[in-house]
TrEMBL record:
Coiled coil residues, start to end: none
Biological processes annotated in GO: amino acid transport
Ranges of residues in domain ABC transporter: 2-230
Protein name: Peptide ABC transporter ATP-binding protein
Length: 232
């Protein structure tokens, strides 16, 4: 599904050029639940920006669904992103003065779908993430865990090929973090959703079937772990 080979990333600041990612080789198959771990500044966020088609300025090759996309234009990357990826962020990125249902509906409305069809899909997705009856609430009136569920609902409403979750439990307490992890694992297990999760939390990574560790822009380990299903 996703195959990066010898991917390098440089940033330029004034006269200086910084080498951020070094010869990254990474393959992610359909249906995997993968954690990418590393300290702050290790390059993990830079890596997922490339994986998620947010950054097209890199060297090396990127094959997605068997297609060589490393030479795509920015517009082609944007189309790929809109059609294939759902994003979940640490700080939720919800529109505070817009209802839960309207937040969740945004990707489909941007895609030009009819409002009647969108309403039905929003209702189904809110049920899926455990927020039945919350459609008319405002995000600011919800708990952090509930807001993250809204964010997940928005990410999956368009049936993306894969999710990128960037520190999705970073702003939550331990119990709520586990509830969110249980939801991700259920989406992966029951819906077959491919999930790439960035985290610095070993307990979160421990619940993923595969852990990729990055230090100073290099993949230093890529291992399959014994998954602890805390929701069972």
């Amino acid at each position: 599904m996703i195959k990066l080979t010898k991917v390098n990333k440089y940033y330029r600041q004034g006269d200086h050029r910084f080498h951020v990612l070094h010869d990254i080789n990474l393959t992610v198959n359909q249906g995997e639940l993968v954690a990418i771990i590393g300290e702050s500044g290790s390059g993990k966020s830079t890596l997922i920006n490339i994986i998620g088609f947010l950054d097209d300025d890199f060297t090396g090759t990127y094959f997605y669904a068997g297609q060589p996309i490393h030479d795509y234009t920015r517009r082609q990357f944007s189309r790929l992103r809109n059609q294939n990826v759902g994003f979940v962020f640490q700080n939720f990125k919800l529109i505070r003065d817009t209802t839960v249902a309207e937040n969740v509906a945004l990707p489909l409305l941007y895609a030009g779908q009819r409002r009647r069809d969108v309403r039905q899909r929003v209702s189904a997705v809110l049920d899926q993430v455990g927020l039945h009856g919350y459609g008319n609430q405002l995000p600011q009136n919800l708990s952090g865990g509930q807001q993250q569920r809204v964010s997940i609902a928005r990410a999956i409403i368009g049936h993306p090929q894969f999710l990128i979750a960037d520190e999705p439990t970073g702003a939550l307490d331990t119990a709520t973090s586990q509830e969110i992890m249980n939801l991700f694992k259920r989406l992966n297990r029951e819906e077959g959703t491919t999930i790439i999760m960035v985290t610095h939390d070993p307990h979160v990574a421990d619940q993923c079937e595969r852990v990729v560790k990055i230090i100073d822009g290099r993949v230093v380990s890529d291992s399959r772990e014994v998954v602890h299903h805390a929701d069972k």
